[in-house]
Each structure stands twice: as C-alpha cells, then as structure tokens.
C-alpha cells in the first residue's frame, strides 16, 4: 500500500511511503494531480518507498510524461538504491528525460 | 494467418520438433496450416544434429508467419521460436520497439537454458515436485502486498541474503501482477520446496498469453504497462519455466537456496 502526503507551495512535494505496485495507480495519480494544480513544478520524494516493481514504475513514467505535456515538470528525489536499481533496469531515465532526476 | 496476429504489433509462437517426427507441434500459439512444415523440420533436424542454436532472419515472412526463427536443440527435441514484428520495429518509437526486444530476450533465455517452455505433460509432472509450503488464491491487486510478505517470510526462513531476497520478491510481484492483469483477473500462487531450491508457481486459468497484449497500456487506471516483468524475472531468477495455452498460464520460478 502506498501512502502519500503533500507539502504545498509553488513547487509542491509529494512524499511517498510504502509500496509502489499496480495497486498504487489511483492514490498516486490523485495526490500528484492535487499537488500539480496551479503549481509550476511537482517533486516526488521517494525516501519512504520500500518497494517498487515494473507496474509502479510504469505508473510513475506515465505521470511524469503526462505532467510534462501539461507544462508542469515533475522531478523525482531521494531514490533508494532498490528503487534506483529498478529504474536503471527499466531505463526510466531514457523514457522520461534526465531532467526528472536532478540529484 | 489469423487477423488478430496480423494486427498485433509483434508476436511470439513456439513450436517443438521431436527427433524422428515428420512435423512440428505448437507449444505456444497455434500451428498455421499453411506453415511450411518440411522446411521447419529440416532446420530443426539440422540444429539437433549439430547440437547448435541457429537463428535466421526470414526472407519469406508471410510463408513462415515470422520475421525471425530461432532453433534451440534440447536433447532429442528442438524448440522453434517464431517471432513476428509486423513492421512495428521500423515505424514506431522506443516504447513499441521494446516489445521486439522482449521477444528476443525470451528467445535468448530459451537458447541459453534459462527458460524452459513446458508442454502439458511436462507441466503436470513439474508442479508436483517437492512439498508445498505456501499456497493461496489471489483475485485483487490489493493482495499483492500480502503475496510479497508471504514470499518474504519463506525466503527469510530459507536464509537467503538480502539482495537475492529483494530480487526474488520483485520477480514474484511481477509474475502475480501479470497473472492478475492478463490471466483472467485471478489465480493461485504456490511455493514448493524441492532439493536445492524454492519453486514459486504462479498459475491462472485465463485465456493464455498471446504475447500481443504487452504493448498497449491496460485500461485500468490508464497506467503504462512497461511489459518488462519478464525481463526482470529472467534476469534475476535462477530458472524459469512457462506453460501457456487456452487452459491458462503457469510460471515456475526457481530460486536456488543452498
């Protein structure tokens, strides 16, 4: 189960905690959509993500591409080695662009 | 050639030739009646005789319903992987090209012995090996975390190191997610202990993998389907076996523990 909390502002951050799998699609999209309303950019903080698989990764990729096309860039921060390993394996950086990973 | 196949971005079929036979049989997919059996038998016989993996770019793709044919000798049988790309490789972007990569990864996994394609008889005997340590049914994505926790417990009891434990949990998550997405929405995960390994059996009674549904995102939630679950599974596990057909799909995922 994925839990989300939002720190509002012109560049809000969505803090993620728990597990990102197929089941997290709705909660993640809702949180990011809410944070992105009127924002110049949105940050996703992965520090609390304990697990991610290809479905969770796919949901993140789709969100990042959707926000980019809407003119609200998304950045991802504080990736754990486990999350980074899955993202590397699935070549996420090539799909969403280097700018999503400013760290 | 079936309309469904011709409209698909890419497809994989697997045939099997047994030494001495005069024709090949389908193990995944269907055998088109117009398929040039004699040519397939000749190449399969040659691969068996030379004990060598052989892969061809097909010059008459319509005749063979394939752009690429791989012949993989295994004892007295030869698996034939038939890959059709329908031209998508040339016309579409990275996301769609990746399907062809996935199919080629599967072919390579069979060629190097990492992936076994099981016929119904092999499946029936392989799922009976060892003793059951975990067994439960799944019908909802909300149960994915419970499945991972059950796998984690078994792996901890077996004394697996952290990295291999995390990788195994990831692989099982991929397999049960595929089962829920493409296997009719429900199925069963069983863990069996046999000899030097744990075997995770993920089985559904869905329509069978067509290898056609990996490219378009599933409608639920509109999320992207990475289609990479199989790559992760083949990269991280010690051995994988697959049976798929109209009676459902079963994956046997092995992790060595000693």
Helices and strands, with pairings:
The complex is a heterodimer of chains A (103) and B (258).
Chain A: E1 2-7, E2 13-20, H1 25-36, E3 42-52, H2 54-69, E4 74-77, H3 81-89, H4 92-96
Parallel strand pairs in A: 2-3, 3-4
Antiparallel strand pairs in A: 1-2
Chain B: H1 3-7, E1 11-18, E2 25-28, H2 37-50, E3 54-57, H3 61-64, E4 68-74, E5 77-84, H4 88-91, H5 94-111, E6 115-117, H6 120-126, E7 131-138, H7 144-157, H8 162-182, E8 187-194, E9 197-204, H9 229-236, E10 239-245, E11 248-256
Parallel strand pairs in B: 6-10
Antiparallel strand pairs in B: 1-2, 1-5, 3-4, 4-5, 7-8, 8-9, 9-11, 10-11
Helix pairs in contact in B: 7-8, 8-9
Give an overview in words:
The complex is a heterodimer of chains A (103) and B (258). Chain A has 103 residues and is of the alpha/beta class. Chain A is 41% helix and 28% strand. In chain A, strands 1-2-3-4 form a 4-stranded mixed β-sheet. In chain A, helix 1 (25-36) packs parallel to helix 2 (54-69). The N and C termini of chain A lie far apart (26 Å). The mean pLDDT of chain A is 93. Chain B is elongated, with a radius of gyration of 19 Å. Chain B has helices at residues 3-7, 37-50, 61-64, 88-91, 94-111, 120-126, 144-157, 162-182, 229-236; strands spanning 11-18, 25-28, 54-57, 68-74, 77-84, 115-117, 131-138, 187-194, 197-204, 239-245, 248-256. In chain B, helix 7 packs antiparallel against helix 8 (162-182) and helix 8 packs antiparallel against helix 9 (229-236). The longest helix of chain B is centred in the middle third of the chain and has 21 residues, at 162-182. In chain B, the strands form 2 sheets. In chain B, strands 6-10-11-9-8-7 form a 6-stranded mixed β-sheet. The chains are: A alpha/beta (103), B alpha+beta (258). The A-B interface holds A 1, 19, 21-23, 25-26, 29, 51, 53-55, 57-59, 61-62, 82, 86, 89-90, 94-95 and B 94-95, 141-142, 144-145, 148, 166, 169-170, 173-174, 177, 180-181, 217, 220-229, 231-232, 235.
């Amino acid at each position: 189960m994925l839990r989300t909390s939002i720190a509002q502002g012109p560049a809000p951050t969505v803090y993620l905690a728990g597990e990102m799998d197929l089941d997290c699609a709705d909660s993640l999209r809702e949180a990011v959509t809410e944070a992105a309303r009127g924002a110049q950019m949105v940050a996703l903080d992965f520090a609390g993500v304990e697990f991610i698989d290809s479905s969770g990764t796919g949901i993140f990729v789709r969100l990042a591409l959707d926000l980019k096309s809407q003119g609200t860039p998304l950045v991802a921060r504080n990736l754990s080695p486990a999350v980074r390993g899955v993202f590397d394996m699935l070549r996420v950086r090539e799909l969403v662009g280097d700018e999503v990973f400013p760290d | 050639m079936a309309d469904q196949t011709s409209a698909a971005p890419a497809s994989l079929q697997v045939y099997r030739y047994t030494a001495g036979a005069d024709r090949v049989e389908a193990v995944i997919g269907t055998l088109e009646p117009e398929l040039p059996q004699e040519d397939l038998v000749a190449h399969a016989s040659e691969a068996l005789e030379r004990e060598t993996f052989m892969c061809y770019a097909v010059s008459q793709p319509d005749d063979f319903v394939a752009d690429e044919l791989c012949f993989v000798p295994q004892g007295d049988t030869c698996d034939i992987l038939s890959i059709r790309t329908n031209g998508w490789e040339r016309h579409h972007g990275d996301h769609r090209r990746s399907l062809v990569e996935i199919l080629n990864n599967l072919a390579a996994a069979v060629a190097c012995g990492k992936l076994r394609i099981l016929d119904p008889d092999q499946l029936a005997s392989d799922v009976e090996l060892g003793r059951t340590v975990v067994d439960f049914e799944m019908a909802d994505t909300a149960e994915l975390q419970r499945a991972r926790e059950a796998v984690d417990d078994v792996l901890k009891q077996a004394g697996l190191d952290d990295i291999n434990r995390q990788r195994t949990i990831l692989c099982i998550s991929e397999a049960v997610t595929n089962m829920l997405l493409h296997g009719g929405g429900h199925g069963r995960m069983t863990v069996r202990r046999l000899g030097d390994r744990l075997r995770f059996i993920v089985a559904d009674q869905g329509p069978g993998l067509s290898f056609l549904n990996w490219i378009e995102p599933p409608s639920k939630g509109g999320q992207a389907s990475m289609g990479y679950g199989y790559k992760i599974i083949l990269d991280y596990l010690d051995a994988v076996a697959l049976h798929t057909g109209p009676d459902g799909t079963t994956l046997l995922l092995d992790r060595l523990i000693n």
